[in-house]
């Protein structure tokens, strides 16, 4: 049921037009992996669950912070209306890219470590689960790229030509989310060595 939930919520993400709803459903999808790992009750599964919960907590929070910076300037969360913000905010676009790459567990992020632990656990429990987890991973990559392209690329609407600039506090907030993720991959035993 947890694996089926991953596929369903990931598929819902592909149809979202509201940015915050997309991020929220993305969280539900990732927690499906955590639930499956906890139910498996193996040391690797519990390690993966702990790792992914910490990693996803930082990643999801960073995505919500980015969505809020967009909303404070454009006053809309509709993906079709907020295109092309890369031209206005190139540094914020870099934060969007890094956070989306972390969300879809690209190497060398700690998210990848957690997902690999969980996928290995589920594969040892039942080999056909590799098909479902593989599809979930593919859909996650698809909606993460969709979210990035919809918010950052394309031509900007004429109503958004004069937007207020981003502030240092917003960039500092994102540094405080992504820096721990980068540091944890250098010493993952801090969170992954709890159950092994």
From TrEMBL:
GO cellular component: mitochondrial membrane
Keywords tagged on the record: Electron transport, Membrane, Mitochondrion, NAD, Oxidoreductase, Respiratory chain, Translocase, Transmembrane, Transmembrane helix, Transport, Ubiquinone
InterPro entries reported in the protein's UniProt record: NADH_UbQ_OxRdtase, ND/Mrp_TM
Keyword DNA-binding: no
Reaction catalyzed: a ubiquinone + NADH + 5 H(+)(in) = a ubiquinol + NAD(+) + 4 H(+)(out)
E.C. numbers: 7.1.1.2
Entry annotated with the keyword tRNA processing: no
Membrane-spanning residues: 21-40, 46-67, 79-98, 130-151, 172-195
BP GO annotations: ATP synthesis coupled electron transport; electron transport coupled proton transport
Cellular location(s): Mitochondrion membrane
First-tier enzyme category under EC: translocase
One of the record's GO molecular function terms: NADH dehydrogenase (ubiquinone) activity
Membrane topology: Multi-pass membrane protein
A Pfam family the protein falls into: Proton_antipo_M
Residue ranges of domain NADH:quinone oxidoreductase/Mrp antiporter transmembrane in the record: 1-140
Homology family: Belongs to the complex I subunit 4 family.
Function: Core subunit of the mitochondrial membrane respiratory chain NADH dehydrogenase (Complex I) that is believed to belong to the minimal assembly required for catalysis. Complex I functions in the transfer of electrons from NADH to the respiratory chain. The immediate electron acceptor for the enzyme is believed to be ubiquinone.
Name assigned to this protein: NADH-ubiquinone oxidoreductase chain 4
Organism: Podarcis siculus (Italian wall lizard)
Gene name of the encoded protein: ND4
